[in-house]
């Protein structure tokens, strides 16, 4: 053991270069280079802008539809992703007068400790961590989803990665583990898209409320420009943020009393009362088959007049459940959190639309 006691003076510490524990470093293409290689066409640029406006209208209450952010916990297989997306695109046409469907296209996963960190980090799923390939594959796949006519959503986890995808997104989340981070709030303040801040893993709303107030303001912060150069970035502030209730260590937070408390907390702080409920994570106790019951309760509240509830999130895949990451994987099954399969998802969304009339 050669641990350095925290009270040793700098002079007493063993000489180490600042990078002594960094094994290697490899350059990556800049966001600008990747965008040039995989460009967003004028047609798709217009499509993304139109769907961002549609999401804003639902969040603002100008559009009565329910926003539904639905799709795999994480993308890991391009074929299965496109198979799922084609079905969702069809359902979106069928239910589009009552539900605004946005597909989860999550390529970065925050982990409680360690684990697979998502397609952008490890596209070969084997720990080799080929991030140059992962960023390109993620952007390629997101463009393919847009081509199917779907708006897409993702969690922005690593602020430096945001620029590789941001132009493709109609909605983004800042996750429960990062809502309290000043760096993520700065990032959001410079994004021209609606962003949901999740409550903390402990269930606390305060960090998400602080996040919305911070992100609404202009910031000057350290970041990276399109050429990959570290830069001082200046932002305008983002007025399109909202709260996502995802439950916490004490249990769920989607019931009437939780939503009322969240709405009152937002109103007290002068923040627009716009709330999404994540039917998964701590709201489902991580049991994907409890998501329909959560969605039903949200809908009961909407239909009873709770106008702050503007949408829901669902973790859904081609097939039910999840599987451990192994050399041989079942097609269309999540390798992160358990998901509701396609059949259950389509049934649930049709039932939801029918209740909304
Ligand atoms: O949605 C995914 C997970 O809930 C989150 O990334 C944490 O996962 P973990 O607890 O399995 O690491
Ligand atoms: C990690 C996620 O959610 P949360 O931040 O609520 O845990 C997710 O939606 O994939």
Which helices and strands, and how do they pair?
Elements: H1 31-37, H2 42-60, E1 66-71, H3 78-95, E2 99-104, H4 131-147, E3 152-155, E4 171-174, H5 182-189, E5 195-198, H6 206-215, E6 220-224, E7 230-234, E8 241-245, H7 256-268, E9 275-278, H8 291-303, E10 309-315, H9 342-356
Parallel strand pairs: 1-2, 1-10, 2-3, 3-4, 4-5, 5-8, 8-9, 9-10
Antiparallel strand pairs: 6-7
Helix pairs in contact: 3-9, 5-6, 8-9
Bound molecules: erythose-4-phosphate (E4P) and phosphoenolpyruvate (PEP).
Overall radius of gyration:
21 Å
CATH class bucket = Alpha Beta
The chain-level structural class is alpha/beta
Q: How would the global form be characterised?
A: globular
Biggest pleated sheet: 8 strands, parallel, barrel
CATH architecture grouping: Alpha-Beta Barrel
What is the H level of CATH, i.e. the homologous superfamily?
Answer: Aldolase class I
Bound molecules: erythose-4-phosphate, phosphoenolpyruvate
Describe the structure.
The chain is of the alpha/beta class and 357 residues long. It has one domain: Alpha-Beta Barrel (TIM Barrel). Helix content is 34%, strand content 14%. It is built from nine helices and ten strands. The protein has an eight-stranded parallel beta barrel with strand order 1-2-3-4-5-8-9-10, surrounded by seven helices. A two-stranded antiparallel ribbon has the order 6-7. β1, α3 and β2 form a beta-alpha-beta unit. α3 packs parallel to α9. The chain starts with 30 loop residues before the first helix and ends with a helix. The N terminus is likely disordered. It binds erythose-4-phosphate and phosphoenolpyruvate (PEP). It catalyses: D-erythrose 4-phosphate + phosphoenolpyruvate + H2O = 7-phospho-2-dehydro-3-deoxy-D-arabino-heptonate + phosphate.
């Amino acid at each position: 053991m050669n641990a350095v006691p925290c009270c040793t003076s700098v002079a007493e510490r063993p000489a180490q270069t600042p990078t002594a524990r960094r094994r290697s470093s490899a350059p990556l293409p800049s966001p600008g280079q990747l965008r040039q290689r995989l460009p967003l066409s004028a047609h798709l640029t217009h499509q993304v802008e139109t769907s961002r406006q549609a999401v804003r209208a639902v969040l603002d209450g100008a559009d009565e539809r329910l926003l539904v952010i639905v799709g795999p916990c994480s993308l890991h297989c391009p074929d299965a992703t496109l198979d799922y997306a084609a079905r969702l695109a069809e359902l979106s046409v069928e239910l589009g007068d009552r539900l605004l469907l946005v597909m989860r296209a999550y390529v970065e996963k925050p982990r409680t400790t360690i684990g697979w960190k998502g397609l952008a980090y490890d596209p070969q799923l084997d720990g080799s961590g080929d991030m140059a390939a992962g960023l390109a594959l993620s952007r390629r796949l997101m463009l393919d989803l847009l081509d199917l006519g779907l708006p897409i959503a993702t969690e922005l986890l690593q602020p430096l990665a945001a620029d590789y995808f941001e132009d493709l997104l109609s909605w983004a989340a800042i996750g429960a583990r990062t809502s309290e981070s000043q760096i993520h709030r700065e990032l959001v303040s410079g994004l021209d898209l609606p962003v949901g801040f999740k409550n903390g893993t402990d269930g606390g709303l305060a960090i998400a409320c602080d996040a919305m107030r911070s992100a609404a303001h202009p910031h000057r912060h350290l970041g990276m420009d399109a050429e990959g150069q570290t830069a001082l970035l200046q932002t305008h502030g983002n007025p399109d943020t909202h709260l996502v209730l995802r439950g916490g260590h004490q249990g769920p937070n989607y019931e009437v009393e939780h939503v009322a408390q969240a709405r009152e907390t937002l109103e007290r702080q002068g923040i627009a009362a716009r709330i999404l409920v994540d039917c998964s994570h701590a709201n489902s106790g991580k049991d994907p088959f409890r998501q329909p019951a959560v969605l039903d309760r949200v809908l009961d509240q909407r239909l009873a007049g709770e106008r702050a509830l503007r949408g829901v999130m669902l973790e859904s895949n081609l097939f039910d459940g999840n599987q451990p990451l192994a050399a041989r994987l079942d097609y269309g099954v999540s390798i992160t959190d358990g998901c509701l399969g396609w059949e259950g998802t389509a049934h649930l969304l049709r039932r939801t639309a029918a209740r909304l009339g």
